[in-house]
Amino acid sequence: MSTKGMFLAALGFFLSGTVYAQEPVELRFLWYSDGNEGEVMADLLARFQEENPDIKVVLDNVAYTVIRDQLPAQLEAGEGPDLARITTLKDLAPHWLDLRDLIEDPAYWEENFGAYLDWMRPEGSDMIPGYMTQLTITGPFVNRTLFEQAGVELPGEGATWDEWATAVKQVAENQGIPIPLAMDRSGHRFAGPAISMGAKFIGEDGEPAVIDSGFRAMAERIASWHGDGIMSPEIWGSVSGATLRGANEEFANAEVVMYYSGSWQISQFAETIGDAFDWAAVPNPCGPEACTGLPGGAGVVGIKYTEHPEEVAKLMDWLASEPVLKEFYERTLFLPGHAGLAKAGLDYKSDNPSVKASLDTFVKEVGKLAPLANRMPAWDWANISYAAIITRLGQVVAGEMSLEDAYDRIEDDIDQQVSEAKR
Protein backbone atom coordinates (compact mmCIF):
# COMPACT_ATOMS: atom_id res chain seq x y z
CA MET A 1 0.00 0.00 0.00
CA SER A 2 1.28 3.48 -0.85
CA THR A 3 2.04 6.03 1.84
CA LYS A 4 -1.03 8.00 0.76
CA GLY A 5 -3.17 4.86 0.97
CA MET A 6 -1.91 4.05 4.44
CA PHE A 7 -2.63 7.62 5.53
CA LEU A 8 -6.18 7.50 4.20
CA ALA A 9 -6.79 4.12 5.81
CA ALA A 10 -5.50 5.39 9.14
CA LEU A 11 -7.60 8.54 8.80
CA GLY A 12 -10.68 6.44 8.07
CA PHE A 13 -10.04 4.29 11.14
CA PHE A 14 -9.57 7.40 13.27
CA LEU A 15 -12.76 9.01 12.01
CA SER A 16 -14.78 5.84 12.45
CA GLY A 17 -13.48 5.59 16.00
CA THR A 18 -14.45 9.19 16.62
CA VAL A 19 -17.99 8.58 15.38
CA TYR A 20 -18.21 5.47 17.54
CA ALA A 21 -17.02 7.35 20.60
CA GLN A 22 -19.76 9.90 20.09
CA GLU A 23 -22.53 7.33 20.03
CA PRO A 24 -24.68 7.88 23.13
CA VAL A 25 -24.53 5.42 25.97
CA GLU A 26 -27.83 3.55 26.25
CA LEU A 27 -29.39 2.98 29.67
CA ARG A 28 -32.32 0.62 30.17
CA PHE A 29 -34.75 1.86 32.83
CA LEU A 30 -37.29 -0.72 34.05
CA TRP A 31 -40.46 1.02 35.25
CA TYR A 32 -44.03 0.26 36.28
CA SER A 33 -46.97 2.60 36.83
CA ASP A 34 -50.00 2.78 39.08
CA GLY A 35 -51.27 6.00 37.54
CA ASN A 36 -49.78 8.66 35.29
CA GLU A 37 -46.21 8.44 36.61
CA GLY A 38 -44.93 6.60 33.53
CA GLU A 39 -46.04 9.46 31.30
CA VAL A 40 -44.48 12.01 33.63
CA MET A 41 -41.19 10.09 33.79
CA ALA A 42 -41.06 9.76 30.00
CA ASP A 43 -41.51 13.52 29.71
CA LEU A 44 -38.72 14.17 32.22
CA LEU A 45 -36.37 11.72 30.52
CA ALA A 46 -36.88 13.44 27.17
CA ARG A 47 -35.75 16.67 28.81
CA PHE A 48 -32.74 14.94 30.39
CA GLN A 49 -31.66 13.57 27.04
CA GLU A 50 -31.89 17.02 25.45
CA GLU A 51 -29.52 18.28 28.12
CA ASN A 52 -27.33 15.17 27.93
CA PRO A 53 -27.16 13.99 24.29
CA ASP A 54 -24.39 11.54 25.21
CA ILE A 55 -26.91 9.41 27.17
CA LYS A 56 -29.95 7.66 25.73
CA VAL A 57 -32.49 6.33 28.22
CA VAL A 58 -34.92 3.61 27.16
CA LEU A 59 -37.90 3.52 29.53
CA ASP A 60 -39.33 0.00 29.64
CA ASN A 61 -42.79 0.59 31.15
CA VAL A 62 -43.98 -2.88 32.20
CA ALA A 63 -46.68 -4.44 34.36
CA TYR A 64 -45.89 -4.55 38.07
CA THR A 65 -45.88 -8.36 37.93
CA VAL A 66 -42.75 -8.17 35.73
CA ILE A 67 -40.97 -6.16 38.42
CA ARG A 68 -42.18 -8.48 41.15
CA ASP A 69 -41.73 -11.86 39.47
CA GLN A 70 -39.13 -11.57 36.69
CA LEU A 71 -36.66 -8.94 37.87
CA PRO A 72 -35.46 -10.93 40.94
CA ALA A 73 -34.54 -13.89 38.73
CA GLN A 74 -32.60 -11.64 36.37
CA LEU A 75 -30.72 -10.09 39.26
CA GLU A 76 -29.82 -13.45 40.75
CA ALA A 77 -28.27 -14.32 37.39
CA GLY A 78 -26.19 -11.14 37.49
CA GLU A 79 -28.27 -9.51 34.79
CA GLY A 80 -30.99 -6.90 34.53
CA PRO A 81 -31.54 -3.29 33.51
CA ASP A 82 -29.27 -0.39 34.37
CA LEU A 83 -31.79 1.03 36.82
CA ALA A 84 -35.29 0.16 37.94
CA ARG A 85 -38.30 1.32 39.90
CA ILE A 86 -39.02 -1.29 42.56
CA THR A 87 -41.02 -1.88 45.74
CA THR A 88 -39.04 -4.86 47.04
CA LEU A 89 -36.50 -2.45 48.43
CA LYS A 90 -34.82 -4.45 51.18
CA ASP A 91 -34.85 -8.06 50.00
CA LEU A 92 -33.01 -7.30 46.77
CA ALA A 93 -30.59 -4.78 48.29
CA PRO A 94 -27.42 -6.82 47.51
CA HIS A 95 -28.06 -6.14 43.82
CA TRP A 96 -28.19 -2.33 44.03
CA LEU A 97 -25.41 -0.06 42.79
CA ASP A 98 -23.74 2.03 45.49
CA LEU A 99 -23.91 5.60 44.20
CA ARG A 100 -21.99 7.17 47.09
CA ASP A 101 -18.70 7.63 45.19
CA LEU A 102 -20.41 8.40 41.87
CA ILE A 103 -22.93 11.14 42.65
CA GLU A 104 -21.95 14.80 42.94
CA ASP A 105 -23.09 15.50 46.52
CA PRO A 106 -23.68 12.52 48.87
CA ALA A 107 -24.56 14.96 51.68
CA TYR A 108 -27.60 16.15 49.70
CA TRP A 109 -28.80 12.56 49.41
CA GLU A 110 -28.21 11.84 53.09
CA GLU A 111 -30.04 15.00 54.15
CA ASN A 112 -33.09 14.53 51.96
CA PHE A 113 -33.40 10.76 51.56
CA GLY A 114 -31.65 9.58 54.72
CA ALA A 115 -34.84 8.56 56.52
CA TYR A 116 -35.51 5.93 53.85
CA LEU A 117 -32.05 4.73 52.82
CA ASP A 118 -32.13 1.87 55.34
CA TRP A 119 -35.26 0.64 53.58
CA MET A 120 -33.21 -0.12 50.47
CA ARG A 121 -29.73 -1.10 51.59
CA PRO A 122 -28.21 -4.17 53.27
CA GLU A 123 -28.24 -4.20 57.06
CA GLY A 124 -25.31 -2.22 58.47
CA SER A 125 -24.41 -0.66 55.12
CA ASP A 126 -24.00 3.06 54.43
CA MET A 127 -24.48 2.73 50.67
CA ILE A 128 -26.65 5.15 48.70
CA PRO A 129 -28.64 2.94 46.33
CA GLY A 130 -31.34 5.31 45.13
CA TYR A 131 -34.27 7.52 46.11
CA MET A 132 -37.98 7.15 46.75
CA THR A 133 -40.27 7.97 43.84
CA GLN A 134 -42.95 8.26 46.45
CA LEU A 135 -43.70 7.68 50.09
CA THR A 136 -46.85 5.62 50.49
CA ILE A 137 -49.19 5.06 53.40
CA THR A 138 -51.78 2.32 53.55
CA GLY A 139 -55.27 3.45 54.38
CA PRO A 140 -58.92 3.38 53.35
CA PHE A 141 -60.89 5.18 50.67
CA VAL A 142 -64.65 5.59 50.93
CA ASN A 143 -67.43 6.35 48.49
CA ARG A 144 -68.87 9.38 50.29
CA THR A 145 -71.76 9.64 47.85
CA LEU A 146 -73.03 6.21 48.93
CA PHE A 147 -72.88 7.23 52.60
CA GLU A 148 -74.86 10.38 51.84
CA GLN A 149 -77.47 8.54 49.79
CA ALA A 150 -77.87 5.91 52.49
CA GLY A 151 -78.18 8.53 55.21
CA VAL A 152 -75.37 6.92 57.21
CA GLU A 153 -72.91 9.21 58.96
CA LEU A 154 -69.25 8.67 58.19
CA PRO A 155 -67.41 7.39 61.27
CA GLY A 156 -64.99 10.06 62.42
CA GLU A 157 -61.33 9.98 63.31
CA GLY A 158 -60.77 7.50 66.13
CA ALA A 159 -63.52 5.13 64.97
CA THR A 160 -62.66 1.46 65.38
CA TRP A 161 -62.48 -1.22 62.73
CA ASP A 162 -65.67 -2.73 64.14
CA GLU A 163 -67.50 0.59 63.89
CA TRP A 164 -66.43 1.00 60.29
CA ALA A 165 -67.48 -2.57 59.44
CA THR A 166 -70.94 -1.91 60.84
CA ALA A 167 -71.27 1.39 58.96
CA VAL A 168 -70.20 0.09 55.53
CA LYS A 169 -72.52 -2.89 55.85
CA GLN A 170 -75.44 -0.55 56.54
CA VAL A 171 -74.57 1.55 53.48
CA ALA A 172 -74.17 -1.48 51.22
CA GLU A 173 -77.49 -2.99 52.29
CA ASN A 174 -79.30 0.33 51.85
CA GLN A 175 -77.83 1.05 48.42
CA GLY A 176 -77.60 -2.49 47.05
CA ILE A 177 -73.79 -2.42 46.81
CA PRO A 178 -72.17 -5.88 46.43
CA ILE A 179 -68.98 -5.24 48.44
CA PRO A 180 -69.20 -3.28 51.69
CA LEU A 181 -65.46 -3.55 52.48
CA ALA A 182 -62.57 -4.53 50.24
CA MET A 183 -58.93 -4.83 51.23
CA ASP A 184 -56.05 -5.51 48.88
CA ARG A 185 -55.12 -9.18 49.06
CA SER A 186 -51.72 -8.43 50.50
CA GLY A 187 -49.87 -9.23 53.71
CA HIS A 188 -48.52 -5.69 53.61
CA ARG A 189 -52.03 -4.20 53.69
CA PHE A 190 -53.03 -6.56 56.50
CA ALA A 191 -50.06 -5.53 58.64
CA GLY A 192 -51.17 -1.98 59.53
CA PRO A 193 -54.60 -3.03 60.84
CA ALA A 194 -52.97 -5.96 62.67
CA ILE A 195 -50.50 -3.60 64.37
CA SER A 196 -53.48 -1.44 65.39
CA MET A 197 -54.92 -4.55 67.03
CA GLY A 198 -51.68 -5.14 68.93
CA ALA A 199 -49.66 -7.44 66.64
CA LYS A 200 -45.90 -7.25 67.28
CA PHE A 201 -44.46 -9.11 64.26
CA ILE A 202 -40.83 -8.66 65.41
CA GLY A 203 -39.41 -10.51 68.39
CA GLU A 204 -36.93 -9.00 70.83
CA ASP A 205 -34.11 -10.69 68.90
CA GLY A 206 -35.27 -9.17 65.61
CA GLU A 207 -36.56 -12.51 64.35
CA PRO A 208 -40.16 -13.08 63.23
CA ALA A 209 -42.71 -13.48 66.01
CA VAL A 210 -45.86 -13.08 63.97
CA ILE A 211 -48.67 -15.02 65.63
CA ASP A 212 -49.88 -13.33 68.81
CA SER A 213 -53.17 -12.06 70.22
CA GLY A 214 -53.13 -8.87 68.16
CA PHE A 215 -52.49 -10.77 64.93
CA ARG A 216 -55.25 -13.23 65.77
CA ALA A 217 -57.68 -10.39 66.48
CA MET A 218 -57.31 -8.99 62.96
CA ALA A 219 -57.18 -12.40 61.27
CA GLU A 220 -60.41 -13.39 63.01
CA ARG A 221 -62.09 -10.25 61.71
CA ILE A 222 -60.94 -10.95 58.15
CA ALA A 223 -62.39 -14.46 58.37
CA SER A 224 -65.67 -13.37 59.94
CA TRP A 225 -66.15 -10.44 57.54
CA HIS A 226 -65.83 -12.83 54.63
CA GLY A 227 -68.31 -15.14 56.33
CA ASP A 228 -71.01 -12.53 56.91
CA GLY A 229 -70.70 -10.71 53.59
CA ILE A 230 -68.85 -7.59 54.70
CA MET A 231 -65.90 -8.66 52.56
CA SER A 232 -66.33 -10.48 49.27
CA PRO A 233 -64.47 -13.71 48.43
CA GLU A 234 -64.24 -12.37 44.87
CA ILE A 235 -61.17 -10.41 45.96
CA TRP A 236 -59.18 -12.69 48.28
CA GLY A 237 -60.61 -15.96 47.01
CA SER A 238 -60.12 -15.41 43.29
CA VAL A 239 -56.35 -16.01 43.27
CA SER A 240 -53.97 -18.25 45.21
CA GLY A 241 -50.55 -18.19 46.85
CA ALA A 242 -49.10 -14.79 47.61
CA THR A 243 -50.71 -13.22 44.52
CA LEU A 244 -51.74 -9.60 44.97
CA ARG A 245 -55.37 -8.82 44.13
CA GLY A 246 -56.64 -5.29 44.38
CA ALA A 247 -60.15 -3.87 44.19
CA ASN A 248 -59.38 -0.55 42.55
CA GLU A 249 -61.55 -1.30 39.53
CA GLU A 250 -64.48 -2.36 41.70
CA PHE A 251 -64.14 0.80 43.80
CA ALA A 252 -63.94 3.01 40.70
CA ASN A 253 -67.12 1.33 39.42
CA ALA A 254 -68.96 2.16 42.68
CA GLU A 255 -69.20 -1.52 43.65
CA VAL A 256 -67.32 -1.02 46.95
CA VAL A 257 -68.26 1.22 49.87
CA MET A 258 -64.85 1.23 51.58
CA TYR A 259 -61.56 0.14 50.01
CA TYR A 260 -58.44 -0.41 52.08
CA SER A 261 -55.41 0.17 49.87
CA GLY A 262 -53.08 3.17 49.95
CA SER A 263 -52.05 6.62 48.85
CA TRP A 264 -50.65 5.44 45.50
CA GLN A 265 -54.23 5.00 44.26
CA ILE A 266 -54.99 8.73 44.31
CA SER A 267 -53.59 9.47 40.87
CA GLN A 268 -55.40 6.51 39.35
CA PHE A 269 -58.73 7.40 40.97
CA ALA A 270 -58.40 10.97 39.73
CA GLU A 271 -58.51 9.51 36.22
CA THR A 272 -60.82 6.50 36.60
CA ILE A 273 -63.41 8.11 38.91
CA GLY A 274 -62.97 11.80 38.25
CA ASP A 275 -66.15 13.44 39.51
CA ALA A 276 -68.45 10.46 38.91
CA PHE A 277 -68.96 10.29 42.67
CA ASP A 278 -67.54 11.91 45.78
CA TRP A 279 -64.66 9.82 47.13
CA ALA A 280 -61.89 10.44 49.62
CA ALA A 281 -59.30 8.83 51.84
CA VAL A 282 -60.28 8.67 55.51
CA PRO A 283 -58.15 8.15 58.63
CA ASN A 284 -57.03 4.62 59.45
CA PRO A 285 -59.51 2.81 61.69
CA CYS A 286 -58.38 2.08 65.21
CA GLY A 287 -57.66 -0.99 67.26
CA PRO A 288 -56.86 -1.06 70.97
CA GLU A 289 -53.17 -0.26 70.35
CA ALA A 290 -53.07 2.20 67.45
CA CYS A 291 -54.80 3.75 64.44
CA THR A 292 -52.02 3.13 61.98
CA GLY A 293 -51.37 2.35 58.40
CA LEU A 294 -48.04 1.09 57.12
CA PRO A 295 -45.47 3.23 55.33
CA GLY A 296 -43.70 2.09 52.23
CA GLY A 297 -43.19 3.19 48.70
CA ALA A 298 -41.38 2.68 45.48
CA GLY A 299 -37.79 3.62 44.83
CA VAL A 300 -35.53 4.08 41.85
CA VAL A 301 -32.25 2.20 42.25
CA GLY A 302 -29.20 1.63 40.13
CA ILE A 303 -28.35 -1.98 39.34
CA LYS A 304 -24.76 -2.95 40.18
CA TYR A 305 -24.43 -5.12 37.07
CA THR A 306 -24.66 -2.08 34.80
CA GLU A 307 -21.80 -1.45 32.39
CA HIS A 308 -22.34 2.30 32.74
CA PRO A 309 -22.28 3.22 36.46
CA GLU A 310 -21.15 6.83 35.86
CA GLU A 311 -24.00 7.50 33.45
CA VAL A 312 -26.50 5.86 35.84
CA ALA A 313 -25.26 8.15 38.63
CA LYS A 314 -25.56 11.20 36.38
CA LEU A 315 -29.16 10.34 35.57
CA MET A 316 -29.96 9.60 39.22
CA ASP A 317 -28.47 12.94 40.32
CA TRP A 318 -30.66 14.72 37.78
CA LEU A 319 -33.86 12.86 38.64
CA ALA A 320 -33.32 13.29 42.39
CA SER A 321 -32.55 17.00 42.16
CA GLU A 322 -35.03 19.15 44.03
CA PRO A 323 -36.65 20.97 41.06
CA VAL A 324 -37.07 17.81 38.98
CA LEU A 325 -38.37 15.73 41.87
CA LYS A 326 -40.73 18.53 42.90
CA GLU A 327 -42.26 18.51 39.44
CA PHE A 328 -42.52 14.73 39.47
CA TYR A 329 -44.32 14.64 42.83
CA GLU A 330 -46.69 17.47 41.94
CA ARG A 331 -47.70 15.98 38.59
CA THR A 332 -48.09 12.40 39.88
CA LEU A 333 -49.92 13.38 43.10
CA PHE A 334 -47.42 11.38 45.19
CA LEU A 335 -46.44 11.98 48.80
CA PRO A 336 -42.82 13.18 48.79
CA GLY A 337 -39.99 10.92 49.91
CA HIS A 338 -37.70 13.98 50.07
CA ALA A 339 -37.29 15.78 53.41
CA GLY A 340 -36.81 19.25 51.94
CA LEU A 341 -39.85 19.05 49.71
CA ALA A 342 -41.97 17.53 52.46
CA LYS A 343 -41.11 20.47 54.70
CA ALA A 344 -41.61 23.13 52.01
CA GLY A 345 -44.88 21.65 50.72
CA LEU A 346 -46.02 20.90 47.20
CA ASP A 347 -48.45 22.48 44.76
CA TYR A 348 -50.29 19.42 43.48
CA LYS A 349 -51.64 19.71 39.95
CA SER A 350 -55.29 18.86 40.48
CA ASP A 351 -58.52 20.77 40.93
CA ASN A 352 -60.41 17.66 42.04
CA PRO A 353 -61.58 18.19 45.66
CA SER A 354 -61.47 14.43 46.27
CA VAL A 355 -57.78 14.40 45.33
CA LYS A 356 -56.90 17.32 47.58
CA ALA A 357 -58.87 15.92 50.53
CA SER A 358 -57.23 12.51 50.13
CA LEU A 359 -53.72 13.96 49.95
CA ASP A 360 -54.37 16.02 53.08
CA THR A 361 -55.58 12.92 54.90
CA PHE A 362 -52.55 10.82 54.00
CA VAL A 363 -50.14 13.60 54.94
CA LYS A 364 -51.74 13.65 58.41
CA GLU A 365 -51.56 9.84 58.57
CA VAL A 366 -47.75 10.02 58.29
CA GLY A 367 -47.64 11.71 61.69
CA LYS A 368 -49.87 9.02 63.24
CA LEU A 369 -47.80 6.00 62.23
CA ALA A 370 -47.07 3.60 65.08
CA PRO A 371 -43.35 3.12 65.84
CA LEU A 372 -43.57 -0.53 64.78
CA ALA A 373 -45.18 0.47 61.49
CA ASN A 374 -42.24 2.77 60.76
CA ARG A 375 -39.83 -0.06 61.55
CA MET A 376 -41.38 -2.61 59.21
CA PRO A 377 -40.01 -1.37 55.83
CA ALA A 378 -36.40 -1.85 57.02
CA TRP A 379 -37.03 -5.23 58.69
CA ASP A 380 -35.20 -8.04 56.91
CA TRP A 381 -38.05 -10.55 57.22
CA ALA A 382 -41.00 -8.34 56.37
CA ASN A 383 -41.68 -9.60 52.84
CA ILE A 384 -41.22 -13.24 53.82
CA SER A 385 -43.78 -12.71 56.57
CA TYR A 386 -46.22 -10.86 54.30
CA ALA A 387 -46.12 -13.66 51.71
CA ALA A 388 -46.77 -16.36 54.28
CA ILE A 389 -49.60 -14.40 55.88
CA ILE A 390 -51.56 -13.71 52.74
CA THR A 391 -51.01 -17.20 51.31
CA ARG A 392 -52.50 -18.91 54.37
CA LEU A 393 -55.23 -16.38 55.15
CA GLY A 394 -56.22 -16.60 51.50
CA GLN A 395 -56.70 -20.33 52.00
CA VAL A 396 -58.87 -19.62 55.04
CA VAL A 397 -61.08 -17.31 52.97
CA ALA A 398 -61.29 -19.95 50.23
CA GLY A 399 -62.45 -22.54 52.77
CA GLU A 400 -59.33 -24.66 52.35
CA MET A 401 -57.98 -24.26 55.88
CA SER A 402 -59.06 -23.33 59.40
CA LEU A 403 -57.67 -20.30 61.14
CA GLU A 404 -55.83 -22.42 63.69
CA ASP A 405 -54.18 -24.43 60.94
CA ALA A 406 -53.32 -21.20 59.14
CA TYR A 407 -51.51 -19.87 62.21
CA ASP A 408 -49.35 -23.01 62.35
CA ARG A 409 -48.64 -22.94 58.63
CA ILE A 410 -47.72 -19.24 58.70
CA GLU A 411 -45.11 -19.88 61.37
CA ASP A 412 -43.77 -22.93 59.53
CA ASP A 413 -43.58 -21.06 56.21
CA ILE A 414 -41.73 -18.14 57.76
CA ASP A 415 -39.28 -20.38 59.66
CA GLN A 416 -38.48 -22.30 56.49
CA GLN A 417 -37.96 -19.20 54.37
CA VAL A 418 -35.82 -17.50 57.00
CA SER A 419 -33.66 -20.62 57.37
CA GLU A 420 -33.16 -20.84 53.62
CA ALA A 421 -32.27 -17.16 53.42
CA LYS A 422 -29.61 -17.56 56.11
CA ARG A 423 -27.79 -20.42 54.37
Question: Any idea what the radius of gyration is?
Answer: 24 Å
Biggest sheet architecture? 8 strands, mixed
CATH superfamily of the domain at 25-135 and 296-344: Periplasmic binding protein-like II
Annotated CATH architecture of the domain at 25-135 and 296-344: 3-Layer(aba) Sandwich
Low-confidence stretches: 13-20
CATH topology of the domain at 25-135 and 296-344: D-Maltodextrin-Binding Protein, domain 2
Secondary-structure-based class equals alpha/beta
Distance between the termini: 64 Å
DSSP summary, beta strand count: 10
Quickly count the helices: 18
Primary descriptors:
423 residues, alpha/beta, D-Maltodextrin-Binding Protein, domain 2, 8-stranded mixed sheet, two-stranded antiparallel ribbon, 10 strands, 14% strand
Please specify the SSE layout and strand pairing.
Layout: H1 3-21, E1 25-31, H2 37-51, E2 55-61, H3 64-76, E3 83-86, H4 106-117, E4 130-143, H5 144-150, H6 161-175, E5 179-183, H7 187-197, E6 201-202, E7 208-209, H8 213-227, H9 233-236, H10 248-252, E8 256-262, H11 265-272, E9 279-281, E10 295-302, H12 309-319, H13 322-332, H14 339-344, H15 353-366, H16 371-375, H17 382-397, H18 403-422
Parallel strand pairs: 1-2, 1-3, 5-8
Antiparallel strand pairs: 3-10, 4-8, 4-9, 4-10, 6-7
